[in-house]
Amino acid sequence: MTQATTAYQKPIPLKDLDNAPYWDAADQHQLALQKCDDCQAYSQPPGPTCAKCGSANVRFEQLGDDITATVYSYVVSYRPFLPGFQDELPTIIALGQLDQVPEVKIMGNILKCEEKDLQIGMPIRMTWVDITEDRALPQWIPATN
Amino acid sequence: MGIIKDRYAIVGVGESERSRKSGTTPLHLALDAAKAAIKDAGLKATDIDGFMNYNEGDSCTSHQLATYLGVRPKYVKDIQGGGASTEMLIADAVALIEAGQLNTVLIYRSMNGSSGTRVGRGYDPDMLQGALAGGSFVIPYGSASPSQWFGMYATRHMHETGITKEHLGHVCLSFYEHAQRNPKAFLHGKPLTMENYLATPDISSPFNIHDSCLELDEGNAIIVTSAEKAQDCTSKPVYIMGMSARQCHPHAHYWNDIDQVASDYVAEELYENAGVTPDDIDVASIYDCFSWVVMRQLEAYGFAKRGEVGDFVAEGNLKMGGKLPTNTAGGMLSEGYTHGMNNAIEIVRQLRHDYEGTDRQVEDCKIGICTGWAGPDIAGAMILRN
Ligand SMILES: [Zn+2]
């Protein structure tokens, strides 16, 4: 867990009717995923109904705080496209394929990772960065850290 | 749409000047493009009874364009859209003509894409979180540019198929080479070598500036009518053999499922409607907002097998004289950028043999493909013949 030291300039995830349980869990340093009771598919990001079958029988499953994954894909950005990223270039943006639920891939920055060490398949672990007094952002770090 | 085969045609194409700073408005650019297309077809403005355009809130309306051409049209339509919208609106025009509502439709895209609103820039981050599907799961991580979104697909696809940065370079070099034969291409006089390409730093991996389309001020127009009415035009008609106007990725969200693209679904319907196979295609316009997008579509549309696309482009098959001369005016990487319409104009000119007797003409070409890509999530395409 990393504490932000200066005022947070980057965009803060906006909670809405459908995604609030995900971000509420994140604020508690937990992962919650939306799952369909009818077809058992996960919807990530969450939505009003199941994105696979359209069923309204969806609920959030708590996965806890011990979340490991492997890098499914990534980009390395050398220019900032949004405020707050200008001081942390290059930025690594990756999709982590969850070990527990391989059909789900979650986007995050990989922190504490050298570009030269980055590769598809590398093990990563979810961490939560406290970005404001009451908000936390799920991120990835190399699993060896 | 199989039943429309060869019954509709593109009879006029035209464009405005292209520049970094037009010093004028999208309405003026649209008027220039429309007048050029109407002249090309040998029609009068009042022969057009439908006007359509796609935009991203950065253009003039179809109604304005019609008004200042002195036309009181029956039908106007403006949609939000980028890539694949040319194909979609052509299909809409065909459907309205087929239904007996309209006779002849002018479709345009006009934008100050360099001096005015620039794609993907200057938006409020909180607005983007709401506007993009799943935006709250993307924007907080700094991913706001199509280069980053498509790059995520590209990295994985390249990993799986063995496509290298140098292969992407061959796409860029092929199109830049075409631009050197086209005096109207924005990068005419600016050839690219592999050495320069590989030495250019990435903006967002795996893409550098050469892998990315231009941003320019430009207007383009295309006129569609029935094969019957096409006989009244002075231009050589280019017939629509088949279309798959728009198809979608099976999941609405880009960032989770990056293994499939909408083009995979377009291809099957397209060839079936047109009654041809990839082997029958002589010349191509492949949507090229980024170099890799071309690679992925070559696979989707069956021009090279998965895993062999890198070799296909490295062998020079996209160049003049190759198996599939592609984006022969330079494409969006080096000619101009109007969300695909300039590529559609070029395929029409090739199939009319407008460049006969020059080194720009794909010799004896009869059948061409034009593809559109709004993103991995939405695509459309058409097959045309002379
Ligand atoms: Zn379901």
Greatest contact pair? A-B, 37 and 39 residues
Our Rg estimate of chain B from Cα atoms comes to: 19 Å
Q: Report the count of strand segments of chain A.
A: 9
Please trace the helix and strand order of chain B, writing H or E for each element.
EHEHEHEHHHHEEEHEHEHHHHEE
Largest sheet of chain B: 9 strands, mixed
Bound molecules: zinc ion
Discrete helix count of chain B: 13
Beta-strand percent range of chain B: 15-25%
- SSE series of chain A: EHEEEEEEEE
- Number of DSSP helices of chain A? 1
Note the topology.
The complex is a heterodimer of chains A (145) and B (386).
Chain A: E1 2-3, H1 20-27, E2 31-36, E3 42-43, E4 58-64, E5 68-77, E6 91-98, E7 105-109, E8 123-130, E9 136-142
Parallel strand pairs in A: 1-8
Antiparallel strand pairs in A: 2-3, 2-4, 5-6, 5-8, 6-7, 8-9
Chain B: E1 8-15, H1 26-41, E2 50-55, H2 62-68, E3 75-80, H3 85-98, E4 104-112, H4 125-131, H5 146-161, H6 165-179, H7 194-199, E5 202-204, E6 207-208, E7 217-226, H8 227-230, E8 238-248, H9 263-274, E9 283-285, H10 291-300, H11 309-314, H12 331-334, H13 341-351, E10 367-375, E11 378-385
Parallel strand pairs in B: 2-3, 2-4, 9-10
Antiparallel strand pairs in B: 1-7, 1-8, 4-7, 5-6, 8-11, 10-11
Helix pairs in contact in B: 6-10
The structure holds zinc ion (ZN).
Residues 36, 38-39, 41, 50, 52-53, 55 of chain A line the site of zinc ion (ZN).
